[in-house]
Design goal:
Elements (H helix, E strand, L loop, with lengths): L2 H4 L5 H27 L5 H23 L5 H9 L8 H22 L1 H10 L10 H4 L24 H22 L12 H20 L5 H16 L2 H4 L4 H30 L5
């Protein structure tokens, strides 16, 4: 067998980003589905723990292939601090989006019966006003619907501006943790526990912010499942409930927050790490 014949069909980074994001969405959105549709998980913290464990698992499995960004905000931040060539960014983003979309399709098949039963028992007409109560299994809305329609009056305690700040702040903290925890010159980096540290950070952020915005912090995690839900019967509703919020809050805010986290790392942390003598 020649070297060319034995070469993998896809580059390692593509496999890693697709598979890792698939697992992130499968475990994360799966925990939301279990909580909303079956009541199996009680309270925000239980959902947050599954999210965190799912992310840690995905990182452990795929970190050696692609660095396990699993998030466009992280990928752009890595490019900003010169840890990833900019030419690789589009491929990473595409792999992440495809992984998130594919996981949504699998979850839809797994929870199909539970979804139908939940909608029937709660008089939810898929795609009609109020069906964000079931669509939240996939995409995100603010304030957190908690399995119920947001109501004709719209959000009552979370404005678009507030939701933007929440998603940007949460992503900035997450990206800062990732960059500091993976800096080889950081003497207190968690090493083999890096994935667990990142997963725990996500757990804490979700516990704080999920009641407000469902705590996305990841454009691929939101847009892939949201797009799938639009094709699966919820239609335009998933893009109109929060007005432009689907774009401003769940795409632009995490990207802006990721850049803020990258800049904080570059100007306040990296220089100090570089000044530490190597052991």
């Amino acid at each position: 067998m020649t070297a060319a014949a034995s070469r993998p069909a896809l580059p390692a980074w593509a496999v890693g980003e697709f598979a890792g994001t698939f697992l992130l969405v499968f475990f994360g959105c799966g925990s939301v589905a279990a909580a909303v549709l079956t009541g199996a998980l009680a309270g925000t913290f239980q959902v947050a723990v599954v999210w965190g464990l799912g992310i840690a698992t995905a990182i452990y499995l795929t970190g050696g292939l692609s660095g396990a960004h699993l998030n466009p905000a992280v990928t752009l931040a890595m490019a900003t601090v010169d840890r990833l060539p900019w030419r690789r960014v589009p491929g990473h983003l595409l792999a992440q989006l495809l992984g998130a979309f594919s996981a949504s399709a699998v979850l839809y098949a797994v929870f199909f019966g539970a979804l139908r039963a939940y909608e029937y028992s709660n008089h939810i007409v898929r795609g009609a006003p109020g069906s964000e109560a079931s669509a939240m299994v996939f995409g995100e809305f603010f304030p957190n619907p908690g399995g119920h329609p947001l109501g004709a009056g719209g959000p009552t305690f979370v404005s678009t501006e507030a939701a933007f700040c929440v998603e940007a702040l949460g992503t900035a903290i997450l990206v800062l943790v990732i960059l500091c925890a993976t800096d080889a010159r950081n003497p207190s980096r968690p090493g083999i526990l890096t994935a667990a540290t990142i997963g725990l950070t996500v757990t804490m952020l979700i516990s704080l912010f999920a009641p407000l915005t469902m705590a996305g912090f990841n454009p691929a995690r939101d847009f892939g499942p949201r797009l799938f839900s639009a094709l699966a019967g919820w239609g335009r509703m998933v893009f109109t409930v929060n007005g432009s919020g689907w774009l401003v809050v769940y795409i632009l805010a995490p990207l802006a927050g990721g850049q803020a986290g990258a800049l904080a790392y570059r100007f306040f942390f990296r220089g100090h790490y570089l000044a530490i003598p190597e052991s």
